[in-house]
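ok so heres the complex, four chains, lmk if somethin looks off
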Amino acid sequence: MFESLPFVSVCQSSADAEKLNIFAALQNFYARKGALHVVEIVSNLQRKFKALWTYTVNLKQLSEYLNLSQTTVSRALNGYPEVNENTRNRVLKAAQDLNYRPNTRAKGLATGRALAIGHVIPVSNQHEMVNPVFGDFIAGAGEAYARAGYDMMLTLVPDQEEVRAYQDIKARGTVDGIIVHGPVINDERIALLLRIGLPFVVHGRSTDVNLPYSWIDVNNRGAFERGTQFLIELGHRRIALLNGLEHMDFAFRRRKGYENALRNHGMSPDPALMRSEEMTEVYGYRAAKEMLARDLPPTAFVCSSIITAIGVRRAVHEAGLVLARDVSIITHDDALSYLENGDDVPIFTALRSSVRYAGGEAAEMLLSLIASPKHAPKSRLLEAELIIGRSTGPAST
Amino acid sequence: MFESLPFVSVCQSSADAEKLNIFAALQNFYARKGALHVVEIVSNLQRKFKALWTYTVNLKQLSEYLNLSQTTVSRALNGYPEVNENTRNRVLKAAQDLNYRPNTRAKGLATGRALAIGHVIPVSNQHEMVNPVFGDFIAGAGEAYARAGYDMMLTLVPDQEEVRAYQDIKARGTVDGIIVHGPVINDERIALLLRIGLPFVVHGRSTDVNLPYSWIDVNNRGAFERGTQFLIELGHRRIALLNGLEHMDFAFRRRKGYENALRNHGMSPDPALMRSEEMTEVYGYRAAKEMLARDLPPTAFVCSSIITAIGVRRAVHEAGLVLARDVSIITHDDALSYLENGDDVPIFTALRSSVRYAGGEAAEMLLSLIASPKHAPKSRLLEAELIIGRSTGPAST
DNA sequence: GAATCACTCCAAAGCGCTTTGGATGTTTGA
DNA sequence: TCAAACATCCAAAGCGCTTTGGAGTGATTC
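and the predicted structre for the whole thing:
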């Protein structure tokens, strides 16, 4: 009997949205005739059809289907008050049924907002390394964006082209604001972005920039001062610092903290025990190996990354020494999901601060900045937690 | 003398684009009067002004500035032939001068293309871990996109909402195609995306899906077969496998490779020596610690991740054993930039395949798929390289 | 009974771009 | 010499949405 019904033509029709319209029309038609069993059949077919096909309608089609103007439908969907509640419900149901999704580009063009946030990652030619912290930061931020209905855009910017790139981002209008990653000392981008007028939040800060801008950062100086002091109190006197690249603001601050702690205890930093490089495992291994071979080797290491700390551990083992007994290690720990520092008992004594949490907070901050642009810049200083693990002990030598 | 010139008003004018117009007008004005030194002055001012301010014009303003229609300007900029070469050059110069950038949303709306690629990262509630591979993959892909003028969008999709999310992506029209990350065995997303008609490339493959789709993958089975065989040839008989989660396709294939190698040499896989978990350091440590405490401990480990291998190394040291002499480790190595496996001498004997390279290739593949949608799906199988490092040696026991 | 008001709804303009379908003048070919 | 064939350019429509400025009802007010 199915062949005799008009739905055969439905299935041959080309546009999906049209098919759905026809299904609806069929139901109306038979309903008006009182042929409820046929309505039932059509409705079942429609359901199966829906499960199988993936169609989409636009506002115009939706409004035609509803016999309403686009204005009313748009208002109903966006929660404006000048719509009858019955009408609104009809609209919402139809939008659901017809699988309506507003086109982002059109919406953006009409409203002037992009409903997207950009993440700008500086890539330099010399240092090909991708910041390992990035994935977790993004994960934290992504959740916040998703909740707010924002998209997330990524842009890799070669550091020679920064000015051009940021102008581009602003002018092309693909995002409403950006998160600035990897700030260096005296970072030019901040002044640039303020001038351009693109809302932004810096993940980190920039020493020597005296402009009002929004940021979220870990108290790197404080953390490293605390960590170094912890080692000093355990009796360590020769404490090495394996830092990240010190043109990066975070690394600069960590060195300051380290030096502060030494000076506060009447010691002065020994350049021979201080390194500043890309924070890899091999870097930690090599630096530690060299230093441990000195006449007066360090008895403790302060590392800027858990990966570097792993390298130090390798060197310590290789030298036949025992961690915590012969050599102590304390490291910064970004609480990366794939590099957890042990579980109940931490492997390394660490200064821990979740970068994922920071990502979420940075996102929230930026979103609220975009929502109320007149507000003064916000900032947030996170404290790293000192976690006692099994990599530190009293100085032996 | 400057105060007497009209440019004072220029600097008070509000719209930046307008200012530039006035500068240009000023120059024309004085040029026509023959006052070339004033033209010079204005031009200098303009240059300084440009360096300091960041303005942007849209097509309309640009075309008014040029006394041309928007049509002609658009065509000139997009390389259409029906424009006089002189006109085109004038347009290009003006676009440069006025710092014109086409609005992406408008362009996208008009052309129907988004000039953006989406990366969809499944996030599950149970496994909060962010794939450490992701950053490097993105870095590789990002370069390819930048070259082609594409943007990159990130979407975190909770795995319960997959169907909805992908429909959304298609309907909202923010991207022209997507890269699918983290395929599992019999991954539903592939059929879904084919039905939706959104171009995509899978990073990895999906066993049991017999549909034509595009993918790029490492020969995981082959690599692990090779690696295991390498250990067998060194005399190892009790070889443990510390795999990733085996509902993930890559892990499933790795197990197959491992088992193949064993069987090919008349051995059968021992469930007690096989684990499948999220690939963390602690996982490697714990599993190795337990296994090494057995009556007949394994003499070698095959790991799915360098991070896990590091955990195994820790357990080996802690047990007072020596790597390569007492226990061998071979691991998969994604050649992550922040987790390099040593330098000249690799730390671990490894099956190496650069995920960054894969990212670049995946991106190129997707872009060409979008450029010519009629083409058949493409695929690419990358071979992992066996790198002999210092973590393997002949079986001792 | 006219004026006001609240409630619903709509037509049309506009966001910034591309693209169609000419219009205008200039060469070319037989 | 006249039509056909370029070579250049433009006006206007359209992409899918929001939003302005009403219009058309009844109901309420004075």
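quick notes: The radius of gyration of chain B is 30 Å. thats all i got rn
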